[in-house]
Amino acid sequence: MGYRRTPFAPNEWYHCFTRGVDKRTVFEDEADFNRFTELLYLANSSETIDRGRIQHLAHANIFSVPRGDTFVSIGAYCLMGNHPHLLIRENKEGGISKFMHKVFTGYTMYFNIKRKRVGNLFVTPFRSKHINDDTYLKRVTQYIHLNPAEVFESGWKGGGAKNLHSLEKKLLEYPYSSMQDYFGTKKLKGRPERFLLDKEVASLVSGNSLLIEILSEADMYYKELSGEFGKYQS
């Protein structure tokens, strides 16, 4: 995954992300998204899990496969067409690097065989930002979960959201993030992917905030930012 100058520290949270080489799409269909999500579970183990042995399992059943000790705890995630975002805590020294290597190596092998291509799929090394307090942890989680907003509302980050309630509905329907596990209905919160998440941080981050309130705050911030930038330009 490339050389990293700043080492990770056990029991600390990090926002990790990367993108496809040449900004290419790395998740082209539902099977791709599902495969990467499954790897977030299967690769998070000190033991090697033989993929061939569980190849017959349906996607929903993957998340009940027994694992060894986990490298990391996952607080949130979101997969976009050309990049993934992960909020992870290192459980043991070297855990994040081992976990990310297993995930991205496994997915790249899958993708290349499926598309008959060779070479790197993701930009290396992956980027990371250290999260040093609970307030920042909540903000990063919100940022990760709101990533698909720009897909549904192209002017979102310019303070141009047309209908926040419609946007809220679309975000909760987006299946490739942990948004549903935080803010979805009881049915959505019961999906198998919930087993990816660390219960402690999920409780801390979710709090009593409603998704529509978070969207309103973010929309207001972007509108103010856009207004200030407009003044600077004039």
Description:
With 234 residues, this protein is α+β, with helices and mostly antiparallel strands. A hairpin with a 4-residue loop joins strand 2 and strand 3 (84-90). The chain has 2 domains: 13-132, Alpha-Beta Plaits (2-Layer Sandwich); 142-233, no CATH class. The chain contains 10 helices and 4 strands.
Task: Give a summary of the structure in a few sentences.
The protein has 234 residues and is an alpha+beta fold. The chain has helices at 30-42, 59-62, 95-115, 134-145, 149-152, 164-173, 179-183, 186-189, 199-206, 211-233; strands at 13-17, 72-79, 84-90, 127-131.
Any key phrases for this structure?
234 residues; alpha+beta; Alpha-Beta Plaits; four-stranded antiparallel β-sheet; 4 strands; 44% helix; 11% strand; globular
Give the strand tally: 4
Task: Going across the biggest sheet, name each strand in turn.
Answer: 2-3-1-4
Note the main sheet.
Answer: 4 strands, antiparallel
CATH superfamily of the largest domain: Transposase IS200-like
CATH class of the largest domain: Alpha Beta
Strand content: 5-15%
CATH architecture heading of the largest domain: 2-Layer Sandwich
Order of helices and strands: EHHEEHEHHHHHHH
Provide the low-confidence segments as ranges: 228-234
Helix residue percentage: 40-55%
CATH overall fold name of the largest domain: Alpha-Beta Plaits
Count of DSSP-assigned helices: 10
